[in-house]
Design brief:
Layout: E1 3-6, E2 9-12, H1 13-22, E3 26-31, E4 36-39, H2 64-79, E5 84-91, E6 94-104, E7 110-119, H3 128-137
Antiparallel strand pairs: 1-2, 3-4, 3-7, 5-6, 6-7
Length: 140
Amino acid sequence: MEKIPLHGGELTLDELNAIFTTIPVEFDFIDQNDIIRWSSANRHRLFKRTDADLGKHVLDVHPGHSQGRVKQVLHEMHSGDRSSIKLLIHYHQQPVSIAFYALHNDQGDYLGCVEVTQPVSDFQEHGSIWRNIKQVFHKK
């Protein structure tokens, strides 16, 4: 099988798919037009994505109560005012980390972002509300 060259090495398509289907973390790639282009397909997902979600605007797959925040974060990533944000929410009585990271090519052009979601019940939760508030106002 042909190797895919990546920064830091190379992997086959089978190896890359195995990584994303094995680790208990959700990844969603949202392009520069805020369209969902790829989601990790693994059994660990809390927020299910189907092939029908591919090609949809990211706001179409987020609940109404979070759309304003998602829209604001994406605007700040497009403008370069923010490179990432990490939040802790509760979903079905368990703490869940949701992070957005702006993605750029080697020339610095904005490519979109990746949303990374992970249950964190094994991690210490103390102080999460204040950390979330600080993250919203502190832009990196």
